[in-house]
Amino acid sequence: MNIKKHVIRILVLFIFMASVITSHAQNQKKDQIFDGKTLNGWKQLTGSATYEVVDGMIVGTTVSGSPNSFLATEKEYGDFILELEVKIEGAKNNSGIMTRSHYDPQGNKGAGKVFGRQVEVDPTDRKWSGGVYDEARRGWLYPLDLNEAAKEAFDVSKFNHIRIECIGDEIKTWVNGIPTAHVIDTVDREGFIALQVHSIRKDHQPGEKVYFKNLKLKTHKLKPKAFPSDIEVVDLRKADAK
Question: How far apart are CA 142 and CA 140, in angstroms?
């Protein structure tokens, strides 16, 4: 009888462990945002910049005469932590990562409009990478003049690690491990994620590239990273309530 009970306990434990492993695998699969080989699960919204997969990276290339281009996830997300690495060519180029964003097909006189919060990728002398901009809506929410020390975090000569936390009404950003921006905003609690290739001026040479790699998205069991309390917080809750 004791042997039978022991066998039953082992079987129960085995079934439990198998369910845990299966659940973990399903969660990992569910959070896969980029398979490293194709653009399955993504769609281009507005603009004619090109996006392709090269050596396990998403590579966007600027073209003349195009408005801002966005490669957006087909899924929408609420709370998440996104980590990725970005490199950008061109001292006057620009890019960004859209978070909880939206698309209006009737916007821009029927040409379509992407709008929402964007984490900036800025290789210019302004050095606002990691700042938060509200694309096609409210403009700058967190220019990096609010956090001067973070301006030196982005290195234009290499891939830069960017961490974005969207949890509840808060968005926090890091560039190469350096805390850059903290915004509290009740607008948009879910939406798509998108990779931007910015429009270029007529006198700007086309063909400059933006590289995105090692995209890692978490949407469950989120653990916020400690953020310094002495960095300025932009709290938009009063403005959102109006």
Answer: 6
